[in-house]
Amino acid sequence: MLERHGLKPCGIVDVGCGAGGVLAGLRQKYPLADLVGYDIAQDAAKFWIAYEGQNITLRVGNFLEQGTDRFDVMLLLDVIEHIVDPFGFLTALHGRADHYVIHLPLDLSASSVLREAPLLYSRHKVGHIHYFTKGLALSLLEECSFEVIEARYTGAAFSTPQKSWHTRLAMLPRYLAYRIHRDLGARLFGGQTLLLLAKSRA
Length: 202
Description:
alpha/beta
């Protein structure tokens, strides 16, 4: 996505970096860039030892409280759905980066509302306290004064290995719906995630 838009970042910050694997992958792509990660979870730090010597700065703490630098690119990957106040959080990030790469699970669909169990699983087991469709995600960013440059599905619904024939058969309606209209398929059956590139309008 960065390459498609001609972006060659010299500084990348991953807010909510978790185990740090994304930054480690980006180090191979951007060998000279400053790579910095923040995560509020103390337990995340135990995974960072694997990336010692790769010139990646990883910090335990709240980026909004500790980070003062401006970056070319900020990563917000599977973060916003966990934030109590996503409006305040996103608004506070204005001016901290030139571009923002955001990844969101699209938990909300007709199927998940009817069954409810997937939403409860996301809430109690994964920690999602906000649920999105593509339209709701785009509206949130617009309301927080971000301009979305690109938004695309990642194909998550079809990338998980299907182990049994009846699981593959159950995927058929979802596959057909996506073939007819991707947005409709996502709203009906869910299972998708959204990757966005945005910049601040503020």
